[in-house]
Amino acid sequence: MTILLAICQKEFKDGLRNRWIVAISLIFALLAIGLAYFGSAAAGRVGFSSLPTTIISLASLAVFIIPLIALMLSYDSLVGEDENGTLLLLLSYPLSRWQLVLGKMLGHGLILALSTLLGFGAAALVMGLFSDTTGWAALIPAFALFILSAILLGWIFIAFAYVISAVVTEKSRAAGLSLFLWFLFVLVFDLGLLGLLVGTKGKVDAQLFPYLLLLNPTDIFRLVNISYFAQDQLSGLMAIAQHVRLGTGALLITLTGWLLLPILLSLWLFNRREL
Amino acid sequence: MNIVELERVEKRYREVHALRGVDLYLRQGEVLGLFGHNGAGKTTAIKLMLGVIQASAGEVRVFGRRPDTANARGLRRQIGFLPENVSFYDQLTGQEVLGYFARLKGVSRHHSLRILEQVGLGHAGQRRIKTYSKGMRQRLGLAQALLGEPKLLLLDEPTVGLDPIATRDFYQHLALLKQQGCTVILCSHVLPGVEKYIDRAMILGQGEALAEGSLEQLRQQAALPMTLTLQGAPVSLPAPWVDYAQAGGDGLRLRIPIGQKMACLRQLTHLPGVTDIDMQLPSLEDLYSHFIQHAASDRRHLMEEC
Description:
The complex is a heterodimer of chains A (275) and B (306).
Chain A (H helix, E strand, L loop, with lengths): L1 H16 L2 H19 L12 H24 L4 H6 L1 H6 L5 H34 L5 H32 L3 H29 L17 H11 L9 H4 L7 H24 L4
Helix pairs in contact in A: 1-6, 2-3, 2-6, 3-7, 3-8, 3-9, 6-7, 6-11, 7-8, 7-9, 7-11, 9-11
Chain B lengths: L1 E11 L4 E11 L3 E5 L6 H9 L6 E6 L16 E4 L11 H12 L3 H10 L15 H13 L5 E5 L7 H16 L3 E6 L11 E6 L2 E6 L1 H8 L3 E7 L6 H4 L2 E3 L4 E5 L4 H9 L4 E7 L3 H22 L1
Parallel strand pairs in B: 3-7, 3-8, 5-6, 6-7
Antiparallel strand pairs in B: 1-2, 1-4, 8-9, 10-12, 10-13, 11-12
Helix pairs in contact in B: 2-3, 3-4, 6-9
């Protein structure tokens, strides 16, 4: 336990010194406040949009940015230590490999969770204080769910980054693979599903098809936040999701499953890594 | 008891045969120099002793136990290791980095500060690593190896980047540790100066132990001539020695077999006109290049026969 804590603490301190926490918090806060205030600019209005509109558009933007930030934060976590020579040194210490991976992951997870809370929390605060149409009672649970699911999404992609970092031997390759993974989950997967729909002229099992969305954690994240405002107008792939008969709790559990999978995979792969 | 034992150890990576049947026994308090070119297998041998990789064949034992098992992990508290190329976390200060490693080793913060002082980094402890010079980084590396008073020290190129005074300080510290019963393996391809501080040497080439023993034993194995330099008015040498003479830059040089040293000296000291005699035994560097070349020519012969 002391060892996990020591590694986690060091990683967190590194994140503070590298200005990661400040930078991510600022990005999230600006993004959220900007969307809330200028979200309806296209409709010719400036001012705070309604809460559902804000959260839904925030979710569809965050789904691009959070995975990218998480991957950038952690892609070199293990391969970077290898290139610096500290990996060999650390493994000559009385600690086991899983402790190193888990400790570092905890540190990175803490950095991202704190920044998400600070950034989006600040946005919620601003909206609550200055918006005339949104009350605290509606605002707090909506943002709490959004922040919770955003943290889970970030953690999932941190764990993905660890999987990559555990297998590759060069930092540059880890960066390339991370970008590819991001592209796959954030863009290609949804396009593929849409393509499937169009290609089959909609003759797919209407009961089964929506569950394909569960194969992509970024889609689950959007589902969580959209299904919270289920009565609102939905467009694109998310409209299909209305058929998914899964509550918020079940979706969050699926996300947790998506988190455990890459964590276990990275531990297994790192255990087999040759030094 | 042997602190380190390697018995016919082999290590194969996918394409590389890194170690081929190496034997090594190290008793407590011994200082061994492990020499060889890059890729000779030095670092592989060290990794095996640390237990971070497993031997493909043969036995590795450290403190009498296999180092690569989970329950041998506690042994690592008694081992200090300095990797060849290590760059520490630039954003952290020297104190923070050493404090981190101290916590991982279960050593108190107080002790880690004392070691930082010992390696001469006390004044720079609050500064971030990115402001450190090459020598300071190397000293920080040494500091972490010395955490927790290790009984076995594995040092890969410990004096790289150190200035001559820091190098001397390092060797003096090493002598102190040896007195306290610490066993040391020094990996290096930089040789001058190291021979005074080692008890034994092992020369590795292409994964094989080319030679092993004390300096005296290696000199006997190599049978390299020693050099005598004579100063004084031109002297005419008596019968057997004239054949060994060479025209040198300063004075007259004789390269004679080590076994005939006394016989030669006895005659030379009685020669009229000789004012000074300087003796030079083959250095570790000479022995090193001898064994490396020897192995290379052996391989060539083998290739030709095939």
